[in-house]
Amino acid sequence: MSELINKQNSTMSKKRRKISKDESSLWWMYIPAFTAVSLFIIYPFLNGIQISFTDWDGFSQDSNWIGLDQYKRLFSDPLTWLVVRNTLLYGVGSTFLQLTIGLLYALLLNRSIKFKALTRTIIYLPVIISPLIMGYIWVFFFAYQGGALNDVIMWLGFDPVNALGNPSVNPWIIVLVNTYQFVGISMIIYLAGLQGISKDYYEAADIDGASAFQQFKKITLPLLMPSITINVVLNLIGGLKLFDVIVSLTGGGPGNASQSMSTFMYTLYFRREDAGYAATQGVLMTFMILAISLIALIYFKRKEVEA
Question: Residue 171, preceding bond cis, omega within 30 degrees?
Fold first, then answer.
């Protein structure tokens, strides 16, 4: 009996050692990803923090350590708050519109309708175009001289409008163009979530006499929360670091009226040769995106329910 027990213990011990060895070998698979993240994200970020404490112009070999002077300048600069406001508008505005329109598209295309595949393709098609090219395409629509919008307005007998040159209008045009381009991604994520909801819930709700709105509120929306969480985080990050569309549509102008934090950093570094201050703006932008994304992630994760 004791021999049998010893044999079983020996076998189990061998299995544990084998499992432990297999698990330890899996850790080696993290090395390529960790190396890439360290080289291309962590090291540049730490280097950016170091530069933010200097007066480096971005091109010379020398720079001077000036402590917190760039951060004092950051919080006293009125342009900082303008670009932060614009960045929040691009991030939150684009996220709200993409969530809403993407959900409507998904609900429509989750039904049995004609040309469903073709419609999905048309909605998703702008995603594959470069954001820079997309911006230049829309310039032909909103341009003051020769733009399609003004051609229609003048044909109706009104004076042309300078939409891209109006600082109270052009940030919203940027939001709309960004939404138009990336709403297809939100739609696809929603469709995946909708197709994962069992039809049994809806059949039970029909038997109970629930209306379409009640089914959406009590079944669809709660079970779609994982898709909403993914959409919110992806769209927030994409909108808050928006760059290409702004460059092609307005160039950040007129003046600095439509600058985001990304385009403002580019202007500071390459046009004003003020790399130290650009790095300070970059540090602020990183922590702002991190904080907003984490808060949104935690909030929407708590709303998720098990199917």
Answer: no
